[in-house]
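request received
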Amino acid sequence: MTTKRKIRVLIAKPGLDGHDRGALFIVKALQNAGMEVIYTGIHYTPKMVAEAAIQEDVDVIGVSVLSGAHMTILEKIFRFLKEKKAGDIPVIVGGTIPPADAAELEKLGVRGVFLPGTDTSDIIKCIENLVN
Amino acid sequence: MTMMDKTTMDLFNDPKSSKVLATIGADGFPNAVPVQSLAAIGEKTLAFTVVAMTKTKYNLLERSKVSAVVYQFPPKGFQVKGTFTGFVTSGEIFDRMAVMVEKALKIKAYEVGIIEVAEVFPLQLAKAPEALPPRAVTISDVEVKPLYTPTDIMDLNYNRDLGYPGNYPYTRGVYPQMYRKQSWTQRLVSGFGTSDESNQRLKYLTAHGETGLNVVFDLPTHYGLDSDHELAEGEVGKEGVPIDSILDMDTLFKDIDLAAVSTSLITNYLTVFSYYVAVAQNRGIPIEKLAGTTQNDACSCHAGAKVAIVPIRPTMKLSLDIVEFCTQYMPRWNPVSLVGYHYREKGCNAFQEVALTMCTGIAYLNAGIERGLNIDQFAPRLSFFFGAHNDFFEEIAKFRVARRLWARITKERFGAADPRSWRMRFHTQTAGCSLTAQQPMNNIVRTTIQALAAVLGGTQSLHTNSYDEALALPTEESVEIALRTQQIIAHESGVINTIDPIAGSYYVEYLTGTIEKLAWEIIEKVDRMGGMIEAIEKGWVENEISDASYRYGKSIENGKRVIVGVNQYERPDEEIKIKLLKIDPTLEKKQLQWLEKARNMQNSKTVNSALEKVRQAAKKNENLIPTVIEATKAYATIGQIFDVFRDVYGVVKWG
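response:
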């Protein structure tokens, strides 16, 4: 019998924003769904996020931004991932994101944008689909 | 009815009816017994024969008030209240009763009691027992009964627990006349882009009737970083106004008379405060005229908003510098606003919010006293800041509890003698975390309910959120509605016409007592840990909050709690079409130019010597404000000043 590897997710809170309620909630919800979750804590730089994702060999990166700096931060995360030849790790985003920006983020390569009020089961489903 | 009709009389005189007579004993206990002989003699008269009814007979001789019930199945029946007038052993009524009981009950009558009927009520006999209503809890999971009555507040003592408004323990409000004399201050959080845009927003709000200013700063400013710092990129002007130097502070308050306004600065270290004081001094305004508030809560900026820069103990030291400075030079300034709001926004419940804030207050009282200040010198200027969430009555109860607790803590625990030290004055912000991205216009209604709770809870100032804030910073249009919401409550609803209209509500008084007990339990737990600073250092505060946040979030996901538009009444086809504030990306460049300008205005010798003075004062553990003000006047940037702090005190480590 082969044991299936647990899905590994990096939850990142890059930038200066300290609003970590949502990130902490997602961490617990994903753990309860049987995933392995690595949480960066606040104040990671985009470069540190990319490095942590590679080092921890995660399947998905979840980025939480509530400060309005999402465009700058995500552009940088993708740039660092590509530089390190890890552009294939799927990235999803949650936070206070205006709908027009959600479309822009998807153009950048973000695979899912989740606004406040999203049911965690939708996020779990999205992660499972990205991994399989 | 005051007399019996034919139906009632027939029912009493029907041998198939069941009849009960209740009397009151001398000890106050009621006594109910079946009395089958009860009969209606006339519209105003009941009679019964006495058969082995010792207790009833004694009771009637002591207290004449009675209640009689007659009923049959299928359900019909009446209750009669009346007065026992005496026993008879002969006469017309005795003879009629004797015949009747002989025939119907096969007993002989010796004595007949007479009752004069006063009131008659039909009985509400349900066909089937009603199911108990489903269990209800507040947002903080406090059990709520279907009905509250005087028995729920029997322990309440008006003078001890409520007091008149403006009197200890201030449950009914901190001022004797409350809003009859002066309305709460309407101040809306403002700040975005650069100091230019923010100055325009401040003027726009003032022109529309705002009565106080409330400025929020961007994240690089909160963290003491210049706008060109690596970590600042993309964050400049996004969550608030950037302040790099005294030039920005001057522009922010352009054309605003600092001696005539009350300004709240949402900032946690003494630097932004020093820029403000320096601008006033440069304009020739005596600083004792400055009115306003600095948030400056060392506990909340570590365990709540997470905008701390240096570790918690030096943060507390720097915070106390403002307290001490204001005690000496700025009597109209509130040096600290003890924050419960951030804990609530992170997900704690109402009684945790109030308890953690009180624990912070206790830490400040201790720290001020350790500094050598007399409690009555500085406690009167400590102010508070709470959230207002969705559970209307629980929020009102929470504000009342906070006032009562603070009065007891300052007076009974710390022995403060000046009544002004006992008064808990507070600012309220409606709950940002309650706003939904879905169907955003619904947020106007949520904010209205929350604002009303704050007003009925006796707030001294109020910020109302705008409907678009789950998606972006607010536009001028959405901010205007938020301000109008307060104006409608103040001028149209009539709730301010009488002081504290809520007092005496069985439910709210009961809830106030319950939340007070739950909050005390937490305060005592934190006391046992050594106080709020220790509880934060151990990680206990954050753990408690994140557990509560998870429980709350799950209760929404599993549908136990309904959020309109999110987990019920959703519109799956919803497209969010409201206009959102887009911060012009070129503003970040504009800010960098302002920063450059300040650097160009520096004389390197003057600024370095000023910064060295700050460093020496920090090393000697002196009050840093005078030296920091001097540095701001030498065009020192926020990053330069905080670099000194980071150097001397070290940098906070986030877990």
